[in-house]
Amino acid sequence: MDAKFLESQKEVLLKMRDEIRQKLKEKYNDAMSFGNEEGQDSADEAYNLYSKNIMLGRVETDALKLNLIDQALKRIEDGTYGVCIECGCDIEEKRLKYVPFARYCVDCKSELEKKGLIKM
Ligand SMILES: [Zn+2]
Question: What's this model's pTM, rounded to 2 decimal places?
């Protein structure tokens, strides 16, 4: 994998990481402050709990993505970026441009997804 491509992927990943971190912070604060007003009846409370869970569910997905981005950045440092961690083959550049934090080649990803082993 050429250095120029790696450098641009690194930039994309770092930018992505900043954006998600920012978004996460906002969402987390939203979810935490949601429904903390006084004097609500139980229907409101149930609704609030429901909304809170949805918000936190989204936070979880972002946190997962953040983790994958960190791993990808580490692989760039290690020089193993762009190699499928399952079968060791090179991941297509086209795929890496689309999913810069991809860990698996297309074949392994669909195989693992089918088995329910990975979400992303
Ligand atoms: Zn693979």
Answer: 0.77
